[in-house]
């Protein structure tokens, strides 16, 4: 176990103490987090909470000012400088769901949580030379003691229960080293992110342990864990698991090859390769992508809206206007900068991107950040939107190769769990990225939700309930706490009969001929699907 794992063990008395009682009480009336809601910063007392919020004192390094608090450590509610532009609104509000299922009629049988990782530092962006805007703050102590503490977990090497990473510099702090680390272009998670992940973990415990789906001891086999093979995702996963089960995950129960997406180079039975996108690609998917990409660059939307927003953003940030083909990549870089700086609490983000009242990213329809966010997200989902509009048959084929195989695995796991198959986990948590959630929203044709980048810790949850009176299973789909209508039947909301849901997603399951990987590298519990 690395330094971070040891530091979490030291924090277990704090993390297990105060929240448990209030959380259990809140769960009786629905899953409300012990922190109730996340608001604007407020001062607090208590050395233990302050130590966890600000990080350990470092000799010769000034303490950052107290800016956000972790008062839920003492059971007094949760506060942090964030809102729905930065964080899953369910975590912000402390409410796991916007409506509940009648427990006298239905019993929960299984759940699959696909989610984005927690708050992090900034990706390396060569297009902007790792410079967000003039006079940007960075993670060096000289620039921002606050941000330096956010990335300081008490040791030089970052580590989780699965991996350790050697010290890497922060390219945004050059020539200083900076405290935040970026490994092969991918940034580390932050202490604020860890706190938010713990809050979501408490909500998951309330929903799935206190409800009786999983015993409090979390026996082996009841939970399956997946995470992209990077620090921010692994940090999120182990923090949430600790909140759910009261202990860190062990390598014996969750070995690297069965937990970390990308740990094995090739899709292999027992490995979570199917959680990643484009695993059934090949030449056909490449050709469809190229055709869609060419159409995007020729579209009126690209030539007008995207270029206009890119020019406006370039003027605000002091960057040259990007080449037309690079406009979306440029917007992606600045979205990353704004989200990290503003949502973490660095006071240097250009006002043009912020809500005047909250000083956080403005997601409004006419706001610059909102327009930047929606146009860049539209480029990410362009392939799905383009083929849906131009050729429904090709759309189905494209979707199946792009990510539809995930529905084959999801349906197999949920159906097996609903039937009581002991091989199927009761709860699965997959910590990936926004780019994994957005296409699934698009598959369901939830266009308004798919139009914006999912914020940190966004969740797409599939639950299976059994009707006690007739014994039939039904599926409920939630995105960031909101129950979604995914099935067309007039009586298929908020619960969709399992067979209706299965038929809905079956059209996205590729055939064995189109995707042999699915049928050779995954062990179906209930028999192979009739894909294609």
Describe this structure in words.
InterPro entries: His_PPase_superfam, Histidine_acid_phosphatase. Residues 1-23 form the signal peptide. Keywords: Hydrolase, Signal. The protein has helices at 3-17, 20-27, 47-54, 89-93, 145-150, 191-208, 231-245, 256-259, 282-298, 300-317, 327-344, 368-380, 382-390, 392-418, 434-443, 447-450, 498-506, 516-520, and strands at 106-116, 158-159, 164-165, 182-183, 186-187, 223-228, 260-261, 427-432, 459-467, 473-479, 482-483, 496-497. By secondary structure, the protein is an alpha/beta fold. It has two domains: 1-279 and 381-532, Phosphoglycerate mutase-like (Rossmann fold, 3-Layer(aba) Sandwich), CATH 3.40.50.1240; 284-380, no CATH class. The longest helix has 27 residues, at 392-418. The two termini are 45 Å apart. Residues 1-26 and 34-80 have low confidence and may be disordered.
Query: What proportion of the residues is helical, as a percent range?
Result: 25-40%
Distance between the termini: 45 Å
Provide the β-strand percentage band. 5-15%
How many H/I helical runs?
18
Tally of domains: 2
> Gyration radius, to the nearest Å?
23 Å
> Architecture of the largest domain, CATH level 2?
3-Layer(aba) Sandwich
* Oligomer type: single chain
Q: pLDDT average, as an integer?
A: 87
CATH superfamily heading of the largest domain: Phosphoglycerate mutase-like
Write down the secondary-structure element order.
Answer: HHHHEHEEEEHEHHEHHHHHHEHHEEEEHH
Largest β-sheet summary: 8 strands, mixed
What is the molecular shape?
globular
CATH topology (level 3) name of the largest domain: Rossmann fold
Under the CATH scheme, which class of the largest domain?
Answer: Alpha Beta
Uncertain segments: 1-26, 34-80
Class by SSE composition: alpha/beta
Signal peptide: 1-23
GO molecular function, one term: phosphatase activity
Keywords: Hydrolase, Signal
InterPro entries: His_PPase_superfam, Histidine_acid_phosphatase
């Amino acid at each position: 176990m690395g330094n971070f794992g040891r530091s979490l063990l030291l924090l277990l008395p704090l993390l297990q103490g105060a929240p448990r009682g209030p959380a259990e009480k809140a769960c009786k009336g629905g899953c409300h987090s012990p922190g109730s809601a996340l608001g604007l910063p407020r001062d607090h007392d208590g050395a233990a909470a302050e130590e966890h919020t600000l990080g350990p004192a470092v000799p010769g390094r000034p303490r950052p000012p107290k800016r956000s608090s972790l008062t839920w450590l003492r059971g007094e509610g949760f506060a942090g400088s964030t809102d729905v532009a930065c964080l899953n609104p369910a975590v912000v509000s402390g409410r796991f769901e916007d409506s509940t299922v009648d427990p006298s009629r239905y019993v929960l049988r299984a759940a699959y949580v696909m989610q984005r990782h927690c708050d992090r530092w900034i990706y390396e962006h060569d297009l902007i030379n790792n410079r967000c805007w003039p006079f940007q703050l960075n993670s060096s102590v000289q620039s921002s003691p606050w941000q330096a503490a956010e990335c300081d977990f008490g040791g030089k090497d970052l580590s989780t229960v699965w991996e350790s990473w050697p010290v890497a510099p922060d390219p945004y702090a050059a020539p200083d080293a900076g405290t935040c680390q970026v490994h092969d272009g991918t940034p580390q998670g932050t202490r604020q992110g860890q706190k938010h992940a713990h809050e979501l973990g408490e909500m998951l415990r309330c929903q799935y342990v206190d409800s009786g789906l999983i015993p409090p001891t979390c026996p082996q086999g009841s939970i399956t864990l997946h995470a992209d093979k990077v620090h921010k995702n692994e940090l999120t996963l182990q923090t949430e698991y600790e909140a759910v089960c009261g202990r860190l995950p062990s390598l014996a129960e969750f070995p690297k090859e069965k937990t970390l997406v990308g740990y094995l180079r090739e899709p292999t039975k027992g490995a979570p390769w199917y959680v990643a996108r484009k695993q059934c690609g090949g030449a056909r998917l490449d050709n469809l992508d190229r055709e869609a990409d060419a159409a995007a660059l020729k579209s009126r939307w690209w030539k007008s809206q995207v270029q206009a927003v890119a020019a406006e953003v370039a003027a605000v940030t002091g960057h040259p206007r990007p080449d037309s083909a690079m406009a979306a990549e440029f917007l992606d870089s600045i979205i990353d900068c704004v989200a990290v700086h503003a949502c973490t609490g660095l006071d240097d983000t250009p006002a043009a991107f912020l809500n005047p009242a909250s000083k956080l990213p403005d997601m409004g329809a006419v706001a610059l950040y909102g327009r930047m966010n929606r146009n860049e997200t539209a480029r990410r989902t362009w392939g799905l939107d383009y083929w849906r509009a131009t050729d429904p048959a090709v759309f189905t084929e494209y979707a199946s190769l792009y990510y539809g195989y995930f529905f084959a695995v999801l349906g197999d796991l949920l159906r097996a769990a609903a039937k009581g198959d002991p091989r199927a986990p009761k709860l699965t948590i997959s910590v990936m990225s926004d780019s994994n959630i957005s296409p699934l929203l698009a598959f369901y044709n939830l266009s308004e939700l798919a139009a914006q980048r999912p914020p940190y810790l966004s969740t797409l949850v599939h639950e299976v309930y059994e009707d006690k009176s007739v014994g039939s299973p039904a599926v409920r789909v939630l995105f960031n706490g909101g129950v979604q209508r995914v099935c067309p039947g007039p009586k298929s909301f908020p619960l969709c009969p399992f067979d209706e849901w299965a038929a809905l997603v079956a059209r996205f399951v590729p055939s064995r001929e189109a995707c042999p990987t699915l049928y050779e590298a995954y062990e179906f519990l209930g028999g192979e699907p009739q894909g294609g």
